[in-house]
Fold:
Amino acid sequence: MLAGLLALTGVMLVSGFLRLKLYVDAYGLTWLRILSAWFVIYLAAVLILCFFRMAKEKLEIQLLVFFKKQPCSVTDIPLRQHHGQ
Structure:
């Protein structure tokens, strides 16, 4: 489900960027449009980093299940433990 949300967010970013390009072509480049373009690029970079992190964690979960050699549920996956003071 998370992959679907990331993909749809990517579609929205591409759509927004293309619409911004149409505005720049029609009305010219302004500071607000430059800042908007940089913000869309920043959001795209964050989205890509989220995708890679999600793919990495999914791979780690698959490796844990593979090495366990028995049925595994989500509750069997060890989480990071917080060490108190």
Remarks:
- Residues 2-73 form one domain.
- The first helix runs from residue 2 to 27.
